[in-house]
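Sequence, structure tokens passed on for absentees:
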Amino acid sequence: MAETTPAPRGATGPVDFTDRAHRPGKVIALHLNYPSRIAQRGRSPKFPGYFLKAGTSIARTGDTIERPAGTELLAYEGEIALIIGQACRRVRPEEGWSKVSGITAANDWGLYDLRHADKGSNVKNKSGDGYTPLGPDVIPTDGLDPAALRLRTWVNGELVQDDTTEALAFSFGQLVADLSQLMTLEEGDVILTGTPAGSSVAQPGDVVEVEVDAPAAPGQPSSGRLVTHVVAGEHAMAPYGAQPQVDDTQREEAWGSREAAGLPPAEAQEARDDRGGAEESDHYVPSQPRPDRALLTDELKATINATAVATITAQLRKRGIDNATIDGVRPTHPGRRILGYAKTLRYVPNREDLFTAFGGGFNAQKRAMDTVQPDDVVVMEARGEKGTGTLGDVLALRAQVRGASAVITDGGVRDSAAVAEVGIQVYSSGVHPAVLGRRHIPWEVGGTVACGGTTVQPGDIVIGDDDGVVVVPPQLLTEVITDAWEQEQQDAWVYDRVAEGHPVDGLFPPNAEWKRRYQEHRQSRAGQDAP
């Protein structure tokens, strides 16, 4: 973030809006303004509609925003913020723009899970701490054409919103005039002017950036990028207040479309409703899988831990899944198994300018370790690059304290002796003394990654032993483990027969006669071979 200096309200340049001396007296936000968003929503407002945001929701570039535990629809909205430069009341639309001293980037965050709570006032939905980041720089309006501004938003480096103010439903001058009919707009007040299409849901680990500029103006002035890091909150909504409440309508509006939300087309949904309800397969499937944290019961864990990874891999192959192993990684602690839900972290190749922006501070690597849940296995995509470390003892300890089962990286580990002393099981491609920035930039938490030659998604089940690591799709886990455990019982019985001197021809794999004998053996031991 740029250095900020004391400045009067309405000043231009870098301003810390979180400082009480510069905090706006009012933050007024507009519902709909950009034609692309209006078309997306399917509503055409005749007049502007507004809501207020708390001053304590204001944040700076580089700050974090928490998605409360137990919620799913924290959505970003890149916007242009108008900063009132002088008090005004009852101005005309043609005068309104002259009362604006500067503009800057804003992100009008909202938690759609609580949209129902306040019947349109948006108090809980829109006014949480950190829900209104502003900055970093204020562009003076002198000489600016308010219809020639550009707004862009990036998520994890990907451009997701890109629009201009050329065809707004309500001009900036009209907004100032409209609001000033009933209230005095004071120096330093902020008006958020709506978001274009492209607003969507952010996940913990995402980095969202917003920039406002004037490409056609002399010098192409810019607000700079307003950066927000999304983290998973540890605190759920207390029972004495409104609880999160989500339906497919909220999902569609938060994500921006039914397709982005993973919902079936409206026509298909209507047909299902006409048939009397949705099938299980019609349930919400977000673009990033949601792990079923209840999947790994104590009973299933016991069965998995009594089953070799090699056997599990064979059962996946029978189901047409050959490429499910994380290859080239070896355990720090031989003889110790791992089991858990995949929590993914992706590194991209180092580029010095990007490392400066994304490699320091509370970067993706640190956020991943700081948001681990019990039974997580942190899976790192390092592109097989072993020429530097992707994990050291401090972050290994943090993952262990948070309850992680293991860490897997197809890159290197540094401080390897200290990492081993921490005690958490680590699979890696080798050791290297160099720090992360020699080869990598920590980039993304919670996305689909490629590790050791296979694809891993958040919530996949990761199982490892001395032979290696296999990734099991959650929807196949129970049947794969049931059949793998049964296969192990049969293989153990075959092993004993070979030890007795029987030839392997017809026994391994067993022919019809040996299968009959095995079934007789199993029936005689009914209930005795449970893991």
Notes: Residues 262-290 form one domain. The chain has a mean pLDDT of 88.
